[in-house]
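To close the chapter, one final illustration. This time we ask the reader to focus less on the individual chains and more on the assembly as a whole: which components sit near each other, and how the overall shape emerges from the parts.
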Amino acid sequence: MSAAAQVTDSSFKQEVLDSEVPVLVDFWAPWCGPCRMVAPVVDEIAEQFVGQIKVVKVNTDENPSVASQYGIRSIPTLMIFKDGQRVDMVVGAVPKATLATTLEKYL
Amino acid sequence: MNTTSQTTQASDKNLELMRSFSESYAKRTDTYFCVDPSVTAVVIEGLAKHKDDLGAPLCPCRHYEDKVAEAAAAYWNCPCVPMRERKECHCMLFLTPDNDFAGEQQEIGFDEIRATTNHC
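The assembled structure is written out below.
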């Protein structure tokens, strides 16, 4: 589906919460249409901010614990984590510029 | 990563049922499919899959603590309450003409859907 690494319930703490750089997490599901639109945007963001942030994906069907823990309802939901804390959230398919502007606040 | 039951396709019967419903509901509500037909295809496959698994076409663009309970509650069964009341479909299946992502189609073929979802 994309270049960004898939993170699971069991690897979420290590990959996201313990990360030394801010992490953009794309919560997606296989039969979610708008998730297909946001996936390439997320990939472009990963390229644009390479070295500054980490970008990962969580399949909410396969990883219900993390999805529930962070109160995921509408999919796609993009969350930004910094120093182990959720600091921002964008719901739905958004333009790349919107996502970039949101991310820049946390660099 | 393992392939789970979540990513298998729906039955032909329910895919056709949801395909046909989507076309007639779009026409009835004056809404249009997404300019990217793969979005439409994936959502219809997801609705049909939920119809197979839960007996109701629960919205595939949400995460639920308990899908069986949500299907019984019916709020997010397609067409969901926000769609029926305000023409809001965050799944981008039914888009009002003023939406930037609205295309011009209110029809999609069975084979067209499967051509997309065979590769998911």
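The interface with chain B takes residues 6, 27, 29-37, 59-62, 64, 67-68, 72-76, 92-93 of chain A (CB under 8 Å). The longest strand of chain A covers residues 85-91. With these observations in hand, you are ready for the problems at the end of the chapter.
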